[in-house]
Amino acid sequence: MSAREWDAATYHRVAGPQETWGRAVLERLPLRGDETVLDAGCGSGRVTALLADRLPRGRVIGVDASASMVEQARAHLGDRATILQADLTELALDDPVDAILSTATFHWITDHQTLFARLFAVLRPGGRLVAQCGGRGNLAGVLAVVDEVSADPAFAAAFAGWVRPTRFASAEETAATLAAAGFVDIECGLQPWPVVPDEPVAFLRTVILRTHLERLPAEQRDDFVARVAERLPEPVTLDYVRLNIAARRPHGG
């Protein structure tokens, strides 16, 4: 499984927290109901379906880099949305969209400069970007435990020299990167959002530890997840910090 691939079926089942975040993002996006809106990083389509509910006369486009997520989203949404497989840093659409929504995606992309430039390019003038992703300090406590387990002699060789492929940016640097891409009316802020998952082991395996497990042979993966889970306090509480983003492409831009 490549770094961009997911266990989409399990993700769809356990992604209640991501759907909750998506509802909060949707509340910040005013819609008439006839717009064309892009869900940037649509995953398995749970939030995309909520977006479609808000656009009875509009159009929803979902984009994800993962083939398995695209397949899951298409099965979940049917003809309620157009689902495309594409890397957001290479995104190109035939026509501009009225707004962009994104939940729990941008931190999986380390090149925010290119990301925001591509999102700016597919927005119509005056169009809005409303998003939420992992921000500075996201999962700091949980990842400290993960690093301890990764350093265990049983696993250390697999992680030698490896850098976790995520970027948890601060509000200030995100605002500066958005401004450099051309956005205006920028609002960025961090929000602690602890999560107690219903299925902690499945959630850890599928979401938080996904890229770590790709480094390990199949026979070691269950043990790695179990060691992380057993070192976390009960009930397992994930110390998420969300980066809320709002910005607009200027009318003349």
Detailed description of the structure:
With 253 residues, this protein is α/β, with parallel strands linked by helices. It has a domain at 8-138 and 166-201 and 239-248: 3-Layer(aba) Sandwich (Rossmann fold). Helices cover 40% and strands 20% of the residues. The chain has eleven helices and seven strands. The protein has helices spanning 8-14, 16-27, 46-53, 67-77, 112-122, 140-150, 156-159, 171-181, 200-208, 210-213, 218-231; strands at 36-40, 59-64, 82-85, 97-103, 123-134, 184-192, 241-248. The chain has a seven-stranded mixed β-sheet, sandwiched between helices. Helix 2 (16-27) packs parallel to helix 3 and helix 6 (140-150) packs across helix 11 (218-231). The longest helix has 14 residues, at 218-231. The N and C termini lie far apart (40 Å). The mean pLDDT is 95.
Order of helices and strands: HHEHEHEEHEHHHEHHHE
Poorly predicted runs are: none
The CATH class name of the domain at 8-138 and 166-201 and 239-248 reads: Alpha Beta
* CATH-scheme architecture of the domain at 8-138 and 166-201 and 239-248: 3-Layer(aba) Sandwich
Strand order of the largest sheet: 3-2-1-4-5-7-6
> Helicity range of the residues?
40-55%
